[in-house]
Amino acid sequence: MRAREHFNGLLAFLQEQLAGEEGFTLGYNAEDSAFIRFNQGRVRQAGTVRQVYVTLALYRGLRHAESKLALSGEREADLPLLQQAVQQLRAILPGLPDDPYLRLNREAWRSESSDAVAPQDAAAMAVQISELAQGLDLVGFLAAGPQYQGFASSWGAFGWHVASSFNLEFSLFHGNAQAVKSTYAGERWDAEVFAGKLHGARQQLAYLGRPLRALAPGDYRAYLSPAALEELFGLFCWGFGAQALASGGSPLQRLFSGKAALSPMLSMDERIEGGLAPAFTREGPRQAVTLIRAGQPGERLVSSRSAAEYGLTANGACSGEYPLSLRVHGGELEEGEVLARLGSGLYIGNLWYCNFSDLPAGRLTGMTRFATFWVEDGEIQAPVSTMRFDDSLFSFFGEHLEALSRTPELLLPGGTYGARQTGSMALPGALLSRFTLTL
């Protein structure tokens, strides 16, 4: 896919379409992805998706309107559609009211990151997965390939970003229908790393044949894997947004108001380098933001609209004001020491059905999922029946956070609705001295 050439052609065409005091912004999202489904360790379905979406916004004064188009990727076929969209938006603008919070970034900036993009050989990955999964009931889904993102404006802004990645989500099923779930994601496929992931899942699978351990509701020591933490951070990380905090709707309200604190072991950033998201949004160049420093509140994620409404300074946050490349700093817990440090308690590989039970208090609830094990004296004893938890994030990541694993794991979103996502989280595992099961 000649995405960069296509984007440049659309941009040049739009520059010629402007009339009077009009201005425009053009967002560009494309992908050339392979999708492969596995069942019983074999490829059951394989295909590719090549698609292009653009979002065109037309401005005149404080009035603006936008249109999202699905394009073919061929310039001559797409220009008439773009011209039609300009004409439709131009007809709409006179009937729209002024937007009092419109604060367009009219600076000319440039951001490009497309060098040394790793190619993704999905067919070779599929062969290795099938070979190593022989004899296992492996069910999985692999997405791989390049994604292209661009942004430009009539005022001279230009951003271009190419990210090539893969994301494999797989489960190993036991004969009793219990399963172990694991993921492997990144920019460069390493057969040895995948083999290690599969070996770890295979070891846990062996324990699923033991009778389930039923636990009474109560407080337990627990280790939450990076995948389990992803479910929790995905719930509340939008709470760093300026709008959520200013309106009182953030689950982190108590932290930023000084009424609660988190563990000094906890630090997290919205990073620019190291993730798959571009170094820009439609708001302009993104800035690296320290969200939490040693348990204390850091900066907020501020979009241009929030900056205008609340008298703040925008820092390139996306319009939803949530992290695009979240990184939680690792701690001193070595991966090989997790079970020994846990002693007796729960090893939790995954969580699901997570939601807020009391948003203002930052309370979270959800269910344990897949391979959650009971551990005694540093040894896995039995799988645990599905249980519900309910506790505050100020408990999880406050006084009851005992340790964080040393090396954060890169986790990519598995969502493909409409298009593959480019956000990411780099998360360690967390050892908790208390994890509350309610039923």
TrEMBL record:
Pfam families: PmbA_TldD_3rd
UniProt xrefs under PANTHER family: CONSERVED PROTEIN, TLDD PROTEIN
InterPro entries: Metalloprtase-TldD/E_C, TldD/PmbA_sf
Domain Metalloprotease TldD/E C-terminal positions: 217-437
A GO MF label: metallopeptidase activity
Protein name as annotated: Zn-dependent protease-like protein
Keywords: Hydrolase, Protease
GO biological process: proteolysis
Transmembrane segments: none
Naturally occurring in which organism (per UniProt): Ectopseudomonas oleovorans
